[in-house]
Amino acid sequence: MSISPNIPSPQESFQYESAGTPRWIAVLFGIVIAAMAVLGYAGYSTESRLNQELSEQEKQNKILTAQLDQANSRIADLKSKMEITTQRVGLTQSELAQAKSRAESIRKEQQASDEKITEQLGQVQKESEEKIGAVATEVGGAKKDIETTKSDLEATKGKLDRSLGDMNVMSGLIAHNRDDLEDLKRRGDRNYYEFTLQKSKTPQRVGPVQVSLNKTDPKKAKYTVTVIADDKTIEKKDKTSGEPVQFYVKGSSRMAPYEIVVFDVGKNQITGYLATPKEAGAAAPPGAAATPAPAPTPPQP
């Protein structure tokens, strides 16, 4: 193969370029290539880091999105609950209004009732005061009557006297008539049994004993009686009106005998009373049916 004399050979061409290109340009070109390589690596590293950060950011965004969805769901629940609560509050307010109205009605009714009760109490108090005043007046009258009775008793005490009985024992106060006897009963010192005896062989009950009238002498105001007590027969002969006729029964004190006082002697009749000590208070009441007395036991020869 022939070579054209106008075209240089490769060796010549290399030698020509080598001879014509400065060395610093080649160095600069190498530096540029190295810088481009460094920049390319740096760009790749930055891109990788950015991609990684972007991926992490997307993950974070997904987490935040999920949390936002949960928050929205909670907000929706709260909103629903708030609506329900609002409805309930509205209902409660209505009920409270009704309750308040009812309470006001009850208060007015209670106030009216209190006023009525106060009025009734005032009326009752007024009536009580009137009754108390009336009772006080009655008590005052009773007190006055008691004082009068006391004065009468004190005055009567001067009229009543004591005397020795037929057994030589000092008697209690003696009544000379029915008025005196009523005074003695009010004093209550002894038990008193009033009697009116007709002449009879059949004894009559006088308090705890039986008495039969045997005879009378109105002119001399004398009488004879038979007393039956403790199955014993005691004859009191020719006794005088106003004389304490004394005898003892079982359980009576020797200083407190039973006493018969006659203050009126009539024809076949006497009027008087039997006085017994207080311990004989359980005796039969006066006026009881008369029972026959046993016949007197004849003395033994």
Account of the protein in words:
With 301 residues, the protein is an alpha+beta fold. It has two domains: 22-159; 178-280, Sandwich (Tick-borne Encephalitis virus Glycoprotein, domain 1). The chain has three helices and eight strands, in the order αααββββββββ. A hairpin with a 4-residue loop joins strand 3 and strand 4 (222-229). Mean pLDDT is 78; it is low at 281-301.
What is the 3D shape?
Answer: rod-shaped
Biggest sheet descriptor: 4 strands, antiparallel
- Average pLDDT, rounded to a whole number, is 78
Q: Which strand order spans the largest sheet, edge to edge or round the barrel? A: 1-8-7-6
Strand content: 15-25%
Succession of helices and strands: HHHEEEEEEEE
What is the terminal-to-terminal distance? Answer: 226 Å
Q: In total, how many beta strands?
A: 8
Return the domain count: 2
Helix/sheet category: alpha+beta
Q: Count of helices?
A: 3
Radius of gyration: 72 Å
Low-confidence stretches: 281-301
Helix fraction? Answer: 40-55%
Can you tag this structure with a few keywords?
4-stranded antiparallel sheet; rod-shaped; 52% helix; Tick-borne Encephalitis virus Glycoprotein, domain 1; 3 helices; 301 residues
SSE arrangement:
Elements: H1 10-20, H2 23-159, H3 178-187, E1 191-198, E2 204-206, E3 209-217, E4 222-229, E5 232-240, E6 245-247, E7 258-266, E8 269-276
Helix pairs in contact: 2-3
The gist of it:
Helix content is 52%, strand content 19%. It is α+β, with helices and mostly antiparallel strands and 301 residues long. The protein has a 4-stranded antiparallel sheet with strand order 1-8-7-6, with helices on one face. Strands 2-3-4-5 form a 4-stranded antiparallel sheet, with no helix packed on it.
